Amino acid sequence: MFVAPALQKLLDELERLPGVGPKSAQRIAYWMLNTDRETVVRLADAITEVKDAVRFCSRCFNYAEDDLCEICRSHDRDHGMICVVSEPRDIPPIERTGAFKGVYHVLGGELSPMDGVGPDDLHIAELLRRLSDPSVREVIIATNPNVEGETTAAYLSRQIKSLGVRVTRLASGLPVGGDLEFADEVTLGRAIEARREL
Amino acid sequence: MFVAPALQKLLDELERLPGVGPKSAQRIAYWMLNTDRETVVRLADAITEVKDAVRFCSRCFNYAEDDLCEICRSHDRDHGMICVVSEPRDIPPIERTGAFKGVYHVLGGELSPMDGVGPDDLHIAELLRRLSDPSVREVIIATNPNVEGETTAAYLSRQIKSLGVRVTRLASGLPVGGDLEFADEVTLGRAIEARREL
Q1: In angstroms, what CA-CA distances link B76 with B24, B72, B83, B102?
Q2: pLDDT digits (tens, 9 = 90+) for A106-119
Q3: Neighboring chain A residues of B69 at a CB cutoff of 8 Å
């Protein structure tokens, strides 16, 4: 195969990206070759910058560019409500709803005895320490609605209740806009249990 | 939306890539944040390097890192056979077949009166100049099997024949491994016309 070596190197690196196979890598590489230098170098710089500038918030473990992330620094947020998520990537979808004005705490994973992930591998001690602040009124547990997420929620719930802080969990039920016909049994079961008055 | 500014910038730049929407951009960005710095910077460097190192071969207009591309420089290729393609991206699939040992000529597009692309916009004059070398025995036209590609092939064929050089075109027919049932009429018609003795 005769491909310019710099192009081959780019193809190899692009194929490491999640969801990028040989065909997409080729499409992206040729786009880069055909696009003006400025646009392409801006992407390369943004990649390097993210690795240099982004670290973990010392309070909530979300991505941050300073010691504290923008949410922990904000005076417009309700610091008495803490939403606990597994990963930083779980924060943007919650932010997009506009339904939550509190702050977050990122665990950095979920309890998984099978994979050897125990309470000490997550930022649970740091969460409990935050709860010693008497202004914290409620913790909303927003771990994933799967086995690991539910296990983590149950564990956290016990720990937090013993501190006398209110603990809630995101509701399970039918996705809005979904078809009842295609709902799985567990989701539908939860939706029936959690039915509300009309 | 609270996202670390460097992360937001990376997301914006990633979304410019072909085939990368907001979800894939987010998946790639979080992968970059969770991957060791060395791997990620290697990609950023490969991107910049490709823009700095890669230019067009002065003979065939394929991508090259020197004045001539690796194929034009090679002593293992048959320089008497020239395969004409529309774009550099058409070369790797032909190379992968292993069925062609000649050299290439990249037109840089296809004739398209609708889009205002005429013969002077493509590297046709340069191709005809290459054919003045008496060692050239055959030109294989491998433009795309669509309206623009066929128009370009017909145009080139007239020009090249007038120079007394043999011109051939890639065969059209059923894709190997395909289902006859799903073949379009034009392809099937060509396959019948070009049927061969068994």
Answers
A1: 42, 10, 16, 9
A2: 999 999 989 999 99
A3: 2, 4
Task: For residues B46 and B79, state if they share a domain.
Answer: no
Q: Is B158 inside any structural domain?
A: yes
Q: What is the CATH number of the domain that holds A183?
A: 3.40.1360.10
Write the ipTM.
Answer: 0.73
Residue A164 resides in a domain: yes
| Same domain assignment for residues B13 and B88 | no
Q: Of B69, B74, B95, which is closest to A4 when you measure between CB atoms? A: B69
Give the tens place of pLDDT for each residue, B162-172. Answer: 999 999 988 87
Residue type, B17: L
Q: Identify the closest residue of chain A to B57 by CA–CA distance.
A: A4
Judge if B75 and B157 occupy the same domain: yes
The owner of tokens 């065939």 is B60
User: Do the beta carbons of residue B51 and residue A41 sit within 8 Å?
Assistant: yes
Instruction: Give the structural domain span for B20.
Output: 5-53
Q: At what angle do helices A22-34 and B37-53 cross, to 10 degrees?
A: 50
Specify whether the backbone of A138 is left (phi greater than 0), alpha (psi in -120 to 50) or beta: beta
